[in-house]
């Protein structure tokens, strides 16, 4: 009986110690770094906070150039020029640099851009359920822009591609997204 109690006690102790292990995974580190960068932007007075209509959070925007046209509705289609990007290391301010081994590191990853398509505006629905690229955060921004506006938009992971990421663009889960976007027009049907 003593041997059985000793084994049970040892087993319970192993489970207790194992459950106390707070080893941070790569996903945890990535998520924390992305959340810290978004918090840094949220504290920057040059950016304005816009709450999402979904009540899932907020985005941060900085106006680059003001527009004076109409503002699209959730159900509209729009034409936009944009570049979407993120960084692999938010603690590194440079977009490209040479590391200690002499290797060039590309830190700013542009995952999609109309620049790569001869600056032809992309057309998509403001409603995120009708488009692959439009996230809750991007939809939120578009519903507050006027035709002609150029904005820098910071989207936290929970209003971006979430905890699953977006494999078509090689975007990891928990990634903070940044868009430089110009609302060119609202498509009239």
UniProtKB/TrEMBL annotation:
Presence of keyword GTP-binding: no
Protein name listed in UniProt: Peptidyl-prolyl cis-trans isomerase
GO MF: peptidyl-prolyl cis-trans isomerase activity
Family of the protein in this entry: Belongs to the FKBP-type PPIase family.
Enzyme class: isomerase
Signal sequence segment: 1-18
Its EC number(s): 5.2.1.8
Alphabetical keyword list: Isomerase, Rotamase, Signal
One Pfam family from the record: FKBP_C
Residue span(s) of domain PPIase FKBP-type: 75-187
Catalytic reaction(s) noted: [protein]-peptidylproline (omega=180) = [protein]-peptidylproline (omega=0)
Organism per entry: Proteiniphilum saccharofermentans
